[in-house]
Each structure stands twice: as C-alpha cells, then as structure tokens.
Design brief:
CATH topology: Multidrug-efflux Transporter Regulator, Chain: A, Domain 2
Distance between the termini: 42 Å
Shape: globular
InterPro entries: DNA-bd_dom_put_sf (IPR009061), HTH_17 (IPR041657), SinI_DNA-bd (IPR010093), WH-like_DNA-bd_sf (IPR036388)
Domain Helix-turn-helix: 7-56
Number of helices: 3
CATH class: Mainly Alpha
Mean pLDDT: 92
Radius of gyration: 12 Å
Strand content: 5-15%
Structural class: mainly alpha
CATH architecture: Orthogonal Bundle
Order of helices and strands: HHEEH
Protein name: AlpA family phage regulatory protein
Number of strands: 2
Length: 64
C-alpha cells in the first residue's frame, strides 16, 4: 500500500501562495486541516488540503 507523502508547512504555503507565517497562524487557529508528528512537526495530507481548498472556494462563491 503506497501512502502519499505528507506536505510540509512550506509546501502548503507555496501551494496557497502565502507565507509560512500565514500557514502557522491558520494551524494555530485550527483553520486548516493538519496533523502533528511528535510534538513539533506539522504536516498536511494533500487530499485534505485539496478538499479544504474546494470548500473555501465554495464558501467564497456562495458568500458573493
């Protein structure tokens, strides 16, 4: 069984076109799906981030 490699904070920041500080802030506020490896390493599942992005797009579309 092959698992997708988890994304790093830097990966997600590049994907979203924001700084890593913005991603850390979103994690702190629990606004983006993530998980921790040990006590410090923050990682993201690509599928969860894609789904989250789709949900954000729908919220933006329906809010206009």
């Amino acid at each position: 069984m092959a698992l997708n490699k988890p994304l790093t904070v830097k990966d997600v920041a590049e994907l979203l076109g924001v700084s890593t500080d913005v991603v850390y802030d979103m994690v702190r506020k629990k606004k983006i799906p993530h998980f921790k490896v040990g006590n410090r390493l923050i990682r993201f599942q690509a599928s969860s981030i894609q789904q989250w992005m789709n949900e954000q797009e729908q919220k933006s579309y329906h809010a206009s």
